[in-house]
Amino acid sequence: MAEQRRPRHLMDPSNPVRPVNDARLTRVQQWVISVLVVFTVAHLVVGVVVAAVMMEPEHQTSRVGLVVMSALFGLLGLGGGFLIHRRSPLNPWMVFALVPAAVGLVLVL
Is the four-CA dihedral 74, 78, 81, 86 of positive or negative sign? Predict the structure, then answer.
């Protein structure tokens, strides 16, 4: 009895395809997830800074507190991006995580 040929788009249970373990695929996955993490947190940081600037001037302590929180979020987000690439988050690039908070601090004070 002849074996029935399956169409190419269907999986053949007698000949499973080996899983792909490609270094290039891993590198692309790292870049995609790190960009998503950094830009998502960056949007959060800018949103918190905008919220601090839009608050009433009589809540100065709360405004400064929001700017400090945004600085911490920025450091955590950029540090997470470095950790995804298995690099140390303690490097000079971390200064850029503080830029939105510095701008917010200038606008708040």
Answer: negative
